[in-house]
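How a chain folds remains the central question behind the approach discussed here. The record that follows shows the chain in one-letter code together with its fold in token form:
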Amino acid sequence: HPAPLPDVNNYQSNPALKLPPPAPSLKITKVPH
């Protein structure tokens, strides 16, 4: 089961990957529901 482990590690290790998700979130918050 070492496949899923490296996957999650790469995601947390890569700051670029974490940047994309928050980007859309900010836009949604900016837009008046």
Remarks:
- DSSP finds three helices and no strands in the chain.
- Residues 6 and 13 are 10 Å apart (CA to CA).
- The helical segments are 4-13, 15-18, 22-30.
